[in-house]
Design a protein that fits this description.
about 325 residues; alpha/beta; Rossmann fold; seven-stranded parallel sheet; four-stranded mixed sheet; 11 helices; 13 strands; globular
């Protein structure tokens, strides 16, 4: 049966790939965007979706957007690893989510899939992958992004307790074609251009964006109300990830490990240099602090209940690199 669907965050990396997949179905797909939004990532499907102008931080704008909507994919959010946009992080990731949930409840929306983050799950201790039952422990790191994603999930749980049908998904570190804003893709570009001479000592869970989008749709169809599902893939150290990128791109290997304690000193020294263009923008202390931990996860639940498929992380890196290269985006 065809559904009337609304997608928030439709111009983001995950959101755009989700919209592209949904637009290939017979469902009626609407996207919530700001009037200033760049729609480049959706250029190929704009004739198959309905554009609705609004903003999740503006509660009043959501009423009209929800009219007649049966399903909502809430992928809007601010991803920022630092401490200079804390107020904005809270307004978008927490208050914006509450606004969306309230508007959906008022409009009688049948079901919502809330796209959260692995930072709302927790950190792996002793490098052992964790699952959806892990108590949130990201408060051991001062990262407002993680805190707001955690609070966003609390808002969803509260809405479920009041009768709203919601499912939560937690994508890992997402690579693949279509990452026009260089989210995870920044590390590919910087290794390729030799702007990342060192690697942090932690690790990350890597997943392909196509798998993420497919599994989010499966969560809408088959996910259990109030449950969360980690969408992940290979758990790799940053050394292994850098080696994979070097192998795929032909760039020299990143050979130097950098403990967080030394990263602080190096950052201070680099701050005195006038020309810092040869060092990756990824090298900020908040991001490096997180990258010094092991964000390793298990996705057994998503595979078992949602039919999530898997793919080697090298395949995702290759798809992303080739997509960038075909568009001359690697300079």
């Amino acid at each position: 049966m065809n559904k009337k669907i609304l997608v928030t965050g439709a111009t983001g990396f995950i959101g755009s790939q989700l919209v592209i997949k949904l637009a290939s179905t017979s469902n009626e797909v609407s996207i919530l965007v700001r009037r200033s939004s760049d729609l480049t990532s959706l250029a190929g499907v704009l004739d198959r979706v309905r554009i609705v102008y609004g903003d999740i931080t503006d509660r009043a704008s959501l009423g009209a957007a929800m009219e007649g909507i049966e399903q909502v994919y809430h992928s809007a959010g601010l991803t920022y690893m630092g401490d200079r946009r804390n107020e904005q992080l809270y307004r978008i990731n927490v208050e914006g989510t509450r606004n969306l949930l309230d508007a959906a409840a008022s409009a009688g929306v049948e079901r919502i899939v809330h796209v959260s983050s692995i930072t709302a799950v927790g950190i792996a201790e002793k490098n052992r992958p964790v699952d959806e039952t892990t108590p949130w422990n990201f408060d051991t790191i001062d990262l407002e992004y993680a805190r707001t994603k955690h609070l966003g999930e609390i808002a969803v749980a509260d809405a479920v307790s009041k009768g709203l049908d919601c499912v939560i998904v937690n994508p890992a570190f997402v690579f693949g074609a279509g990452d026009i804003n260089f989210n995870a893709g920044r590390i590919i570009k910087d290794v390729y251009n030799r702007r990342l001479p060192f690697y942090p000592l932690g690790g990350i869970c890597v997943v392909d964006v196509d798998i993420v989008a497919e599994t989010i749709i499966a969560a809408m169809q088959k996910g259990r109300t109030g449950e969360r599902y980690i969408i992940g893939g290979d758990n790799v150290t940053y050394r292994e990830l850098a080696d994979t990128i070097s192998r795929v791109t032909g760039a020299p290997r990143v050979r130097f490990p950098l403990p967080f304690a030394l990263a602080r000193l190096l950052k201070a020294l680099l701050g005195r240099k006038k020309d810092r263009s040869r060092i990756s923008k990824l090298f900020n202390l908040s991001m490096f602090r997180v990258a010094s931990e092991f964000l390793f996860y298990r996705s057994d639940k998503a595979r078992r209940e949602l039919g999530m498929r898997t793919a080697p992380h090298e395949e995702s890196i290759r798809k992303a690199f080739e997509w960038y290269r075909e568009r001359d985006m690697l300079d």
